[in-house]
């Protein structure tokens, strides 16, 4: 499969809330980039679903973004890949500067995994 990402991914180990129509999930963010993120879940939402994603940074600042599910990966005994869904960030409603700082801090530290809690 051809790589379609515009920017590199940063590994992240962070719990978050994902609110979609009549459904709220408490799930884990596995990686982030400037444009999107991957959430680990055995029950991904269908592609095209729009939702609000929120979590607190290490500084306890709330980050909130409107997102859209772009693709899903089902759980499989045939693959080591994590089940989940890829999200595109549509816009930030809170904490955009904090999100940018997280990305910058990880680049400055040249680290692969960030624990924000």
What does it look like?
This protein has one domain (10-109): Beta Barrel (Thrombin, subunit H), CATH 2.40.10. The chain contains one helix and seven strands, in the order E-E-E-E-E-E-H-E. The protein has one helix at 96-109, and strands at 10-20, 23-32, 36-40, 50-56, 62-73, 84-94, 113-114. Strands 1-2-3-6-5-4 form a six-stranded antiparallel beta barrel. Strand 1 (10-20) and strand 2 form a beta hairpin. The longest helix is centred in the C-terminal third of the chain and has 14 residues, at 96-109.
> What structural class do helix, strand and pairing data support?
mainly beta
Biggest sheet, strands in spatial order? Answer: 1-2-3-6-5-4
Number of helices: 1
**Arithmetic mean of pLDDT:** 84
Principal-axis shape: globular
Please, what is the CATH homologous superfamily?
predicted glycosyltransferase like domains
H/E element sequence: EEEEEEHE
From the alpha carbons, calculate the radius of gyration and give it in angstroms: 14 Å
Report low-confidence residues grouped into runs of 5 or more: 111-117
CATH architecture: Beta Barrel
Any idea of the CATH topology?
Answer: Thrombin, subunit H
Defining traits:
Thrombin, subunit H, single chain, 117 residues, mainly beta
